[in-house]
Design a protein that fits this description.
Length: about 140
């Protein structure tokens, strides 16, 4: 049987602390240990000061919608047909980094730029928990 499955993240050595955090329902962000700038996605060195020193901190989990699309024609159709319409958004976290995710639990056509959102976590597989966002006032 050729069953199509949703693509899921494949944690690597840089992103493992992020995905470990998600499993514990914590949004963890990497921060430069020298200049204090948050990095996302995780990276071996800081794009600001080139330092390779970093630490992991739990983020506030809040931010605002920077941009978004409402998916109505899913690809591949066999996998996502039951989920449309859904929202793929760029979220500007309060820590100053931008993250792609879904905004759920609201009318997709009611989303606005600057809308406040808050993270929550949804298991996708035994070892993968995804960070999703919903309106902060929900
Ligand atoms: Zn730095």
């Amino acid at each position: 049987m050729n069953q199509m499955l949703k693509p899921l993240p494949a944690p690597d050595s840089d992103s493992k602390p992020f995905w470990d955090g998600c499993r514990n329902h914590k949004l963890m962000l990497q921060r430069c240990a020298d200049c204090g700038r948050f990095r996302f996605p995780p990276h071996r060195f800081c794009h600001e000061c080139k330092s390779e020193r970093s630490e992991w901190l739990e983020a506030s989990g809040t931010g605002e919608v920077f941009s978004w699309i409402v998916v109505v024609h899913p690809v591949p159709r066999e996998v996502y047909a039951g989920e449309v319409p859904y929202v793929v958004a760029l979220i500007d976290l309060d820590e100053g980094v931008r993250m792609a995710s879904n905004v759920v639990d609201c009318d997709p056509h009611a989303i606005e730029a600057g809308m406040r959102v808050k993270v929550f976590f949804r298991p996708a597989r035994d070892d993968i928990v995804l960070p999703l966002f919903r309106p902060a006032n929900a």
